[in-house]
Amino acid sequence: MKEIRTSAIVAAKLKQWGITVTEGVGTMGVVGTLKSNTPGNHSIGLRADMDALSIIEKNNVSYVSTIPGIMHACGHDGHTTMLLGAAKYLAENRDSFSGTVYFIFQPAEEKDDGALRMINDKLFDRFPMDAIYGLHNLPGIPVGQFIIRSGPMMAAADSWVVTFRGTGGHGALPHLATDVTVLLAEFILSLQTIVSRNIAPTDAAVISVGAIQSGFFESLNVLPSEIRVGGTSRSFTKDMRDTIERRMKELAHGLATGFECTAEVIFNREGFPLVNDAQSTKNAIRAVESLVGAENVDGNPSLVNITSAVLVVLPVVLRKTCEIQSNDA
């Protein structure tokens, strides 16, 4: 929740265009409310994320980050700019629609629970809407093409950390130690069997290692007594999610026992899969096809988790969906 300057800029722009602004929704969230000139009973939300990543940017471009250690590596600055553009256009053309549009600028999409904080701050009670529409950039597809589908669209994102503990020892006398490094090697290879052997071939899931920590390069002859490994997993259903967590724990503890070590497993469920509402998706497809043509609209699920261009369509029951899935977790 560090989007202090960004949320202030967003609020100022919306006010400048005559849009009613509510700040501090879920701490740093901003919501703009725009009503049409003609009365209308329907309302929709247009959503964008505002946050950046903790990365040192080394690009040599005109838009390089000016904040040390912070980079818009996921393109949320583009999302914010696009939604501001839409807000400006609709504010200047209030006769082009009938009803209410809410412009939702979400903080903390990458690391924290920005969306859930806004929902818990009664987002849908304070700003009742029929559906939410949003998009995410996707490097690698041609400009002017869109990926969109109803049903499961983007995966749930979970993080995990496994710590193996043994006795350590001297590298020249490994038989006197319980070597956690060999244990880790076996575990990393075994992780890949979860997707290939425990998840149906018709389903999609990913388990990736993102960090390994142990030992000291100043003491390369020492076998460490503890080693940590962590990463991310992606899945589309609760059953897949349960299977990944269960098998990861079974493999970690089983292999640790076999190597006379111990294992500690932390599995954090951090995001829910995006399931697009069928009717709202049809509405979006019609709008996009009228803009870029049917040949430029494709539909495939993604294992990226976003709370690209990919168009995401959320039904108004998002709040209840989050509550149900939280309870299931």
TrEMBL record:
Cited PANTHER family: METALLOPEPTIDASE, PUTATIVE (AFU_ORTHOLOGUE AFUA_6G09600)-RELATED, PEPTIDASE M20 FAMILY MEMBER
Membership in a protein family: Belongs to the peptidase M20 family.
Co-factor: note: The Mn(2+) ion enhances activity.
Ranges in coiled-coil conformation: none
Protein keywords: Hydrolase, Manganese, Metal-binding
Cofactor: Mn(2+)
InterPro entries per record: Amidohydrolase, Bact_exopeptidase_dim_dom, Peptidase_M20, Peptidase_M20_dimer
Binding site for Mn(2+): 74, 76, 110, 136
Domain Peptidase M20 dimerisation: 159-251
Name this protein carries in UniProt: Peptidase M20 dimerisation domain-containing protein
GO function terms (MF aspect): hydrolase activity; metal ion binding
